[in-house]
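Minutes, project check-in
Item: structure for the 326-residue chain
Input as provided by the requester:
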Amino acid sequence: MKPALKSLRFLSVLLLAMLAATGAWAQAYPVKPITLVVPFPAGGATDIVGRLVGQKLGERLGQPVVIENRAGGGTIVGAGYVAKAPADGYILLISSGSTFTVNPAINNRLPYDPVKSFEPIALTARVPLILVANPQVPVANIKQLITAVQASPGKYMYGSFGTGTTGHFAGELILNATGLKMEHVPYKGSTPAITDLVGGQIPFSLDTVAATLPHIKAGKIKPIAVTAARRSTLLPNVPTVAEAGYPGFDADSWLAIVAPRGIPREVRVRLELALANTMADPEVRDKLLASGLEPAYAPAAAVAALIDHDLPRMRATAQRANIRSE
C-alpha cells in the first residue's frame, strides 16, 4: 500500500473514533441533501472536482450532494454566498486557493473574510502550474530564461489567464526569485493566452498543466518548468523551479472544501471522515489525475496552514508588482 493511502486510512480510523465520541447528534447528520457551491461556471476544473467528489461524498453520507454553480467576481459571488449561509453543514463551498489568498491580496472590499468566515474541512487536490514557451524561443530551462532576458532587456514578456490570477502571481513570484523583469500580458482565460503563445504573439506563458498538456504533447508549445514544489505526475520529466536552483519555490494552486464558520463539531468531524474516505477512493484519485489535477487530500488543519502561509505572501507579491483587482 502506498504511504499516502496508508496515511489516509490511519486518519480515517482516527476520525471515526472522534465521531463515535460525539454522540447521537452526529448520527442524525445529514437528514437532507447537501449543497456544494462551486464559484465557477460548469465545466471548469473546480466544477469537475466538485461533481466527482460530491457524488462520492453523498454516497458515504447517505444523502445527495447537489452542485450549485454560483460564478462571478473571480469566486467572490459564490464565496460570499456561503460565508453568509447557515452554519449547519448543509451548504459547503469548494474553491481554489485564490478565494482565500489571492482575492484578499488584491481586493479590500470582499463580502467575506478568508479566515473568519470559513471553517476548513479538507484539501482535495492541487492544481499544478507550468511555465511554457513558444517552440521558437531559444529557451529550454530556467537558466537559459535568465540568460535570454538579461541579454535582451524589454524584449521578452509573459502571458497568463488573467490579471490577479494564480498564473499571474506565479509569474511574478518567478520574477522576484530570479531578479528578472518582464512585462505581464493578461488574457481573459487560458484559451486566448495559449492561442497567442502557439502563434508566437507572446514568447512565454504561465498556465495550468491541465490547460497546456494537450499542446505540449502536440509539440505546439514547450515546457520550461513546473512552479509547484513537486514535479507533475503528468509531466514527470519537467523539472520544478525549485530544482533549477531556487529551493523552496512553490507557486501552485489548490482546491479545498470549506463550510461557514461555526458549524457544530460533530458535523465537521462527520464531514472530515467522509471526505478522508472519499479521497482515498482509487476511482476518485484516477479521475483527478485524468483531469490534470494532483490528488492531494489533507485535513482541515493543513488547509488553515496553507492559508496562513500563502495569504501574506500573496499580499506582499501584489504590493511589489502593483497587482490590483480589475
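Outcome recorded: Residues 3-126+252-321 form a domain with the D-Maltodextrin-Binding Protein; domain 2 fold (CATH 3.40.190.150).
No further action items on this chain.
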